[in-house]
Specification:
Blueprint: H1 2-11, H2 16-24, H3 39-57, H4 71-74, H5 79-88, H6 104-134
Helix pairs in contact: 1-6, 2-6, 3-6, 5-6
């Protein structure tokens, strides 16, 4: 099992976060049944996050003009708070409102991706790295 996971992580390096979604069954993201996002749309949203959000929050989302968007930095923020910030934007700052560009389900996906799945993916990757180092 661990060897297969290592191979998958190597093979799907760019999609490690989506892989974590499927392993841990994170689907639906607390949205209504009317709008279920496809894998393709989720990939597009992750790209949007990297490119559009990354232009202010930094390439690795560690902060730049905007604050960091790392799970540890978002830990004390409620899901509703983060959804509202993305939906409405932040008045008097560079943070735009996304309510006219993204659906509620898409915004919820981004919040869950930032707070839940990236944390799971990072922990999974660390387990594999530790296992690889231990087997040398």
């Amino acid at each position: 099992m661990v060897i297969k996971l290592k191979q998958l992580f190597k093979k799907w390096n760019g999609l490690v976060y989506l892989f974590a979604f499927s392993i841990f069954g994170i689907q639906g993201f607390h949205v209504s049944a009317e709008e279920v996002l496809t894998i393709e749309r989720k990939k597009a949203l992750i790209e949007l996050l990297k490119k559009d959000c990354g232009s202010c929050h930094g390439k690795w989302l560690r902060g730049n003009v905007g604050p960091p968007l790392l799970p540890g930095k978002l830990r004390n923020k409620s899901r509703d708070f983060l959804i509202k910030k993305i939906t409405e934007g932040v008045e008097g700052s560079e943070m735009p409102a996304w309510k006219n560009n993204l659906s509620k389900a898409e915004i919820a996906f981004l919040v869950d991706y930032l707070t839940i799945s990236r944390n799971i993916a990072q922990k999974s990757a660390q387990i594999i790295i530790n296992d690889t180092l231990a087997s040398r």
